[in-house]
């Protein structure tokens, strides 16, 4: 049975990484850190959450995903 990915690992696409060498490792680390933060948010969601908490949780996950993509862009940037 393959390793089950967490919600955060799935949403950041942890297995999608075409970088090579040290850059590959840096991209993986950045994605894993963002996945961990996304999981922290997601693990605190409950069906009883208020509309405001749901909105903030969604915003947090979306912002972390955008930040992860920007970090990967910086790490892989070539002038």
Total domains: 1
Tally the helices.
3
Give the integer mean of the pLDDT values: 96
Q: What shape does the CA trace take?
A: elongated
Structural class: mainly alpha
How many β-strand stretches?
A: 0
Order of helices and strands: HHH
Strand content: under 5%
Low-confidence stretches: none
Rg of Cα set? 14 Å
Main β-sheet description = none
Percent helix range? 55-70%
How far apart the termini lie comes to 42 Å
What features would you describe in this structure?
The mean pLDDT is 96. It contains three helices and no strands. With 79 residues, the protein is mainly α. The chain has one domain (7-76). The longest helix has 26 residues, at 51-76.
Write the layout of secondary structure elements.
Elements: H1 7-12, H2 21-43, H3 51-76
Features:
about 80 residues; mainly alpha; 3 helices; about 0% strand
What is this entry, summarized?
With 79 residues, the chain is mainly alpha-helical.
